[in-house]
Amino acid sequence: MNHVILEIGLALVLIAFAVSLASRLKLSNVPFLIIIGMIVGPHAPRLGVFDFRFIETGTLITFMGQLGVLFLLFYLGLEANVTRLIEAGPRILTGGSIYIGINFVLGLLYAYLAGFPFRETLISAGVVTISSSAIVAKILFDYRRTANPETELILGITMFEDIFLAVYLSLISSIVLSGATSITGVLSSGGIALAFIVGLLVIGRFAIPVLNRILQISSNEVFILVVFGSLFMLAGLGETIHVAESIGALLMGLILGETRQVERMERLVVPFRDFFGAIFFFSFGLSIDPFSLGGAVWLAVGAALLSLVSVIVAGMIVGRRAKLSAVGSLNLSFTLLARGEFSIIIAALAQAGGLLGIIQPFAALYVLILATVSPLLAKESERVYEFVMKLVRWRPKRKRRVEEVVEETASEPDI
After folding, report:
1. Exposed end of the chain (fewer CB within 10 Å): N or C?
2. Which has the closest alpha carbon to 88: 166, 162, 170?
3. Is residue 276 over pLDDT 70?
4. What's the whole-model pTM score?
5. Would you tell me which CATH number, out of the four given (1.20.1530.20, 3.30.300.130, 1.10.150.170, 3.40.50.300), belongs to the domain 58-391?
6. Which H or E run includes 166?
């Protein structure tokens, strides 16, 4: 008997439970969705009519997860405004370049030392570089730091990461999906992807007046069909030249984000983003066998520790240049430490390109660690700073004692 509807209903109940639990704990729902997906799946039992293996609906859930990626990247494109980033000034451009540069280079080095092949190295470096804008925004809101001096720089860096992600995903997807390994093949695939993204953005820039007229649609039903039809068409066209469909979605968002209908699109897309996005993380968890995680544990722990060090170093450098306090710099570091949806999207490319199977469990464990640790460290950044100061406080005390001895000696009368 076909139980497709029942299995989809069971999946949605599990997803709702994970999201509800995350909400109660005031944490990102990404790790909870991945964990609940890992708990069920092919290794799970069947209890009466409830099949936790999701055999009949596995393909459908995966497809719905792909839609989630499209909506996540499309919404990101609507929010990421390149013009606004440039107008924000050199401080954000410099800070974003420093932050991404340090994290990306260390990610490449770590993957190379771990023995990953070329394409797996590029994927792993991307996984450990991009912060989760969703978790970052949640931290700023939950801890009421939206008015803090470092918040503008944090938001600016996340916006800079969005632009980097667009270019990086375009290049890496063409390399991974085309299977290019030689220098000529890599340059050719990268050139095609870059021409695709630049060409669309240039055309889209000149087409804004036309798009404004086309999108003046009073009916929400017709409006959403036109937008989503264009979204899926462009995403599909990108896939035909080995550019991930998520890039097409991101580019569509960047183009339509310049139109007068951007706020209306954001309002209408949010429910689809949240619904299908949650299914994406659940489906990613379904693809991971928890009994095969052993080989990825130490790799993920090492990457998490390296990321902690790299974001602190980058945060201190960026914070000093921006004249932030030490606590403000730590707030910046610990907030941007969060990894989530974009790391998982990058890791999903490895599965689509048939790369080493360890990439998925590595990315899942890495995201689980940092999506949990980042909000906790960000909440206690001031205490972390005070603890570090206590460890080194003996040095200034010793200096003060020497100064006091000198003063006392100078004040004594000559005999």
Report:
1. C
2. 162
3. yes
4. 0.75
5. 1.20.1530.20
6. helix 151-178
